[in-house]
Amino acid sequence: MAKRLELTEKHKEAIRAVAGDPDMDFSKIVAFESVAASTRPISQRSSPYNGAQMTEAYLRQMSAHLKSNPVTLQVMHDDYTLPTGRVFMADVFAAEAGHWDLNAAFYLLATETALLEKIDTSIIDEVSVGTLPKHAFCSQCEFDYMTEPYRLYYRECPNEHELGKDGVHLRLTEMSTWTELSLVNRGASSKAKILGAAKQRLGTETYQRLAASGAEPDLAFLFSAVTLAPQKPETNPKGDVMDPTLLELAATKGRLESENKTLAAELTSSKAALETANTQITELNTKLVAASTATVQEVETLKASQATFTTFLTAQYKSACVAANLTEIPNATPEQMIAAIDEAKIVLAAVPRGGVTKPADSNEPAAVPAQLAQAAHYKSPR
Ligand SMILES: [Zn+2]
């Protein structure tokens, strides 16, 4: 229990203030103190904030921010579950080697026994803040990554200063917001601890006495993880800065998913088009079969008509040859037969039944040969 805060009147005042309850029942809660952030380089290897440094001003802005804004206590930065507790006090203290720490005190329900036991026994002893910087300058050239936040994921400023290389890091000079303090399995520093009684400074007489005496208390510190706000691109729903490999995978996944959607849509439309084409082919086939059947019938009809005409023409031709004394051409074409008939200048009425020639200068009409007369009669029935 050495870590639990013994609530002083100052603590109680602060808790009543953030809870908005002047009759707060302190027997229901348990409080702890931690170092939430520091001006020391942040050690968080998977993040572009590795090596980043917050200024003392940043820490003081966080402290001031708490006075009028809620800062919740979460577990593992999980914003999808309800808060576990609340930060009620934060202040900036001088640390060793000219650094500064932001100490933050939080409380949670006394009924959270499982969590409390883990904190009491140091199974859980690290915390991490969720804060958004207003500026994140390149340490080499003063380029502000917040003007082009996507560059954080490439870890390189427009002047090709690579974060994490040759000491290049981010300088966090101004806070935009601070939303949460989270209990984490492993914070940004191996030395991080929720503070034991001897190291607590917020609202305690001990620290003030030590500080007044000029002795620098040996304080445990925590390098807090700095997270981006959810509105920034390429952050996960919790607003944490994602590992670049994960970002790349997420980007690839997104790209593949969208490509997949496009392909699926194309496949669906191709299938529809294919089905339409198949239907059209079937319809055309049916039409073609019907058309060819009709054509065959038409051809047959035409053939029959032609045979009738050929028989008629041949008979007329033969009669003409006989009548005009012309030599019959074997297998005469219809053109030859018509020419012969024209040439014969047959005067039909003048040709007697026996086929006797009428003198060419006679004006009387030749007689119609029996076959022709029959055919003519057949063609023009009265
Ligand atoms: Zn730079």
Describe this structure in words.
This protein is an alpha/beta fold. The chain has 2 domains: 9-242, no CATH class; 263-379, no CATH class. It is built from 8 helices and 7 strands. Strands 1, 2, 3, 4, 5, 6 and 7 form a 7-stranded mixed beta sheet that branches. A hairpin with a 5-residue loop joins strand 4 (85-94) and strand 5. Mean pLDDT is 77; it is low at 206-240 and 375-382. Zinc ion is lined by residues 138, 140-141, 143, 157, 159, 161.
Radius of gyration: 53 Å
Largest beta-sheet characterization: 7 strands, mixed
> Quick check: average pLDDT?
77
Order of helices and strands: HEEHEEEHEHEHHHH
- The total count of helices amounts to 8
User: Which cofactors or ions or other ligands sit in this model?
Assistant: zinc ion
- What would the principal axes of the Cα set say about the shape? rod-shaped
Estimate percent helicity. 25-40%
Quaternary status of these chains?
A: single chain
Per DSSP E runs of 2 or more residues, the count of β-strands stands at 7
Number of self-contained structural domains: 2
Q: Give the low-confidence spans.
A: 206-240, 375-382
Report strand %.
15-25%
N-to-C terminal Cα separation, in Å? Answer: 133 Å
* Helix/strand/pairing category: alpha/beta
